[in-house]
Request: fold
Amino acid sequence: MARRGLIVGKFYPPHRGHKHLIDTARAQVDELFVLCCGREGEVPEGKLRAEWLQEIHPDVRVLYLDDIYDAQDSRVWAENSIRLLGSAPDVVFTSEDYGDDFARHLGCQHVQVDRARAAVPVSGTRVRADPLGCWEFLEPPVRAFYAARVCVVGAESTGKTTLAADLARHFETVWVPEYGREYSERKLAAEGGYRFRSEEFAHIAARQCELEDEAARRANRILVCDTDAFATSVWHRRYMGARSPEVEEIAARHTRPDLYLLTDIDTPFEQDGTRDGEHVRGWMHEVFVEELRARGRHFRPVEGARGERLRQAVGYIEELLAGFRRG
Reply:
C-alpha cells in the first residue's frame, strides 16, 4: 500500500535545510505533501513561498494554509492537515521537537530529520537577517527575490553598457543587456529608421523585465542591469513626445532596483551608426534626474573617465550591500 508523508512549515523563506528535509522525506514515501503556512505581512509572502517550493520540488504536492493558529497547538494543526489531505498521512517528517506530539494527534509515525542542523547549517531567521550572506543555501527562485539589483541608466552614449559589464566583472556576477538596443538595431536594419509605435515600447519594457528576472536567478548576490522598464518610459517620451501609461504601469508592477546609477553626459558622443540622440542628451539627463526624484528612487550619479566611474559605482554598491547586512 502506498505510503503518504507530510511536512508542515513556514519555509520563511525556503532554504537548503528545507530542501534536505523534503528530499529525505520524499525518498521514504510514495507521495509527499508539503503544507506551507504564511501570515499577513510576511516578506516574502506565504503564497509566493509555496510557489517556490513547488518549483524546487515538482514531485511533491505543495499546499498553502493561512497561519492563524497557535503554533504550539499540535491538535489543531493535525486537524487542519487531515482536512487538507482528506485523511491522515502515514508518516510526518520534521526537524523540530514538536514532531512527536504532532504525530500522536495525527495517529501516524514521526521521522525527525537533522534536528541539530548539522547536515545543512542554516535557518530561516538567519536568511532573513542576511540573505546575501546565506547565498549558498538558496535555490534560484529565492535568489532572484533577494538579489541586490543595480540598474545603470542615462542618456545615449554615456557609457551605460561599459559600466554594467565592468561592474559584473568586478562583482563576479551576471548583467542584463539592454533589450531596447537589440530591438532598435533590428528595426533600423529592417526599416532604415526609428519610426516607433507606442506599443513597441510596451513590448521592450515587458521583455526587459523578463530578461532581468531570468538573470536574477543566476546572479551572484548582485544583479547588474543595463537599463530597465522605468528607463524605457523615458525613452518613450524621447521618441513619442509623451508619456506611456502602459509602459509606466509595467515599470510600476516590476521589482524596482535597489540602486540606480545615473551616468553623466560628460563623455564624448560616439556615433556607432545606430545613435541619433546627441542633440537631446542634456534633456534626457535632466528627465532622468527629475523622474528618479519624483518617484523616490534611490540613485547616485557617476561621472568621469571609465575607471573613475567604476570606482564610484563600486563604492555605492558596497554601501548598498552594507545596508543589506544591517537588515
In short: Residues 147-326 form a domain with the Rossmann fold fold (CATH 3.40.50.300).
